[in-house]
């Protein structure tokens, strides 16, 4: 797990956007896993800027979103399909037919979950999965107690998540209590994960995820079992990490490798 700490959410989002852009440039036919919520907004606006100003080409990219609220039609302003159109898809040249957000109005969620998994497999699996994290340590809507082997299915939102998301709906009462979500097992199968977290309200969840035990009580901690995870944090979200000094060391080692300058080797 690589932990990158930037001074601000803006700097962290630019760093994350560079990672996504590098993949899209190297592998124009690729499958991205995407998240919604407040956290990836700046990442998406940076990708839009890269598309508009630098010609970043999404024409052959396929996307799969993590989750969707049950019962909300795509036209609902708080549906995740609406969010993705407004904050990313409408501003880049992705083919909308290649964008997938779970259908919150599916009638048979068990069958639909299997179908979504099959669609991901048919697309060759997810190359890079963008993730946020809940204050209760969830990834996607895998609330505490979710099986770490879970697949796409229906989940009940935890009370913390309902409270956190009330800001988007105007009141707690209006927040849907059910969502269809990729499982932890689905996420662990993506080839790379890129988790973003900003703000002091994420600091406990981030410390538990990176430095705590792997536990279904903090589903993001399952990422410790994944072989290629990058966490991009701002200072506030990183504030409770005990091994901060080491993460900074790793980053300066990466810079040394990039520049080829190893200070412990005397120049001749
Ligand atoms: C959204 C999602 C959720 C959010 C998490 C953080 O698709 O899967 O796990 O990433 O709830 O939400 P924000 O970014 O609003 O703090």
Automatic annotation (TrEMBL):
- In its UniProt record, which GO terms are filed under biological process? carbohydrate metabolic process; glucosamine catabolic process; N-acetylglucosamine catabolic process; N-acetylneuraminate catabolic process
Control of this protein's activity is summarized as:
Allosterically activated by N-acetylglucosamine 6-phosphate (GlcNAc6P).
**GO molecular function, a single term:** glucosamine-6-phosphate deaminase activity
Listed A to Z, the keywords are: Allosteric enzyme, Carbohydrate metabolism, Hydrolase
Reactions catalysed, as given in the entry = alpha-D-glucosamine 6-phosphate + H2O = beta-D-fructose 6-phosphate + NH4(+)
Where is the catalytic site? Answer: 67 (proton acceptor), 136 (for ring-opening step), 138 (proton acceptor), 143 (for ring-opening step)
Q: In which pathway does it act?
A: Amino-sugar metabolism; N-acetylneuraminate degradation; D-fructose 6-phosphate from N-acetylneuraminate: step 5/5
For whether the record's keyword set contains Cytoplasm, the answer is no
Mind telling me which residues the site (Part of the allosteric site) is annotated on? 146, 153, 155-156
Q: Which family does it belong to?
A: Belongs to the glucosamine/galactosamine-6-phosphate isomerase family. NagB subfamily.
Give the function comment from the record: Catalyzes the reversible isomerization-deamination of glucosamine 6-phosphate (GlcN6P) to form fructose 6-phosphate (Fru6P) and ammonium ion.
Q: What name is this protein filed under? A: Glucosamine-6-phosphate deaminase
* Taxonomic lineage of the native organism: Bacteria, Pseudomonadati, Planctomycetota, Planctomycetia, Pirellulales
